[in-house]
Design brief:
There is one protein chain. The chain is α/β, with parallel strands linked by helices. It has a single domain, classed as 3-Layer(aba) Sandwich (Rossmann fold), CATH 3.40.50.150. It is built from eight helices and ten strands. The strands form two sheets. Strands 1-9-10-6-5-2-3-4 form an eight-stranded mixed beta sheet, with helices on both faces. Strands 7-8 form a two-stranded antiparallel ribbon. Helix 6 runs parallel beside helix 7. The model has no long low-confidence stretch (mean pLDDT about 85).
Length: about 220
């Protein structure tokens, strides 16, 4: 089957992204740090994130960590984790939330733990996050956990694609809710993108999870 120009560009873009991620994961941490410093030198500093209105924060629960959040989220249901890496948090989701089905989306599952991949409740989706999310039926997922590319544009795209897929009353959770612009880390756009999404969508903040490196988790709840 012959691909049109747009399809060919999409396939080429995904292949390049897969290669970039594979190389990034193989590099020693010292080399990654140098590359982050280089990006920081040329990447513009993003503007401050908008304030989430206080009305959307009323009732938010402050939790000790994201594991405690899993204990408070509804049990069962259908869940998705976008970016699973080695599968450790997916294991926690399976054990604590006990979902009927857990969709895992990642660019590769070569590093994911075998017990997670072997679980009959797990369904793998290898490739980019946005096409997977777009393939899901609207209002079909009880919780989506976003832990993929932490760049501003990538998180914005994930949030936009994920939002309509969450059931009314369901949860959209973001890992590493942080604004980082410093040597060794580069620029993380999660905080900016999530605050913008919260302000424009009006979704309330249900949980805020602490973390030792200040890479917090934030859970937004879709209105009923």
């Amino acid at each position: 089957m012959r691909l049109c120009a747009g399809q060919g560009a999409l396939v080429a873009g995904e292949s390049f992204y897969r290669l970039k991620l594979a190389l990034r994961r193989l590099l020693p941490e010292s080399v990654k740090r140098v590359l982050r410093l280089g990006r920081l030198a040329v990447q513009p500093v993003p503007p401050p994130a908008p304030r989430i209105p206080q009305a959307q924060l009323e009732g938010c629960q402050l939790l000790t960590d994201r594991i405690e959040m899993l204990r408070r989220l509804p049990q069962g249901g259908i869940v998705a984790e976008i970016g699973t890496y080695q599968g450790d948090f997916a294991r926690a989701i399976l054990e604590i939330m006990a979902p009927e089905k857990l969709h895992l989306a990642d660019i590769t599952f070569s590093l994911c733990r075998a017990d997670v991949l072997a679980d009959p409740r797990v369904e793998r989706h290898e490739g980019l996050s946005v096409p997977f999310l777009q393939s899901c039926a609207d209002a079909s997922l009880d919780m989506i956990y976003v832990d993929a590319d932490h760049g501003y544009d990538a998180v914005r795209a994930d949030a936009a694609a994920a939002a309509p897929k969450v059931k009314p009353g369901g949860f959209l959770v973001f890992n590493d809710f942080a604004r980082i612009i410093r040597p060794g880390f580069g620029v993380l756009g999660v905080h900016q993108a999530v605050c913008e999404f919260a302000v424009t969508s009006g979704w309330s903040v249900a949980f805020f999870c602490l973390e030792g490196e200040a890479l917090y988790d934030i859970a937004l709840r879709r209105p009923e």
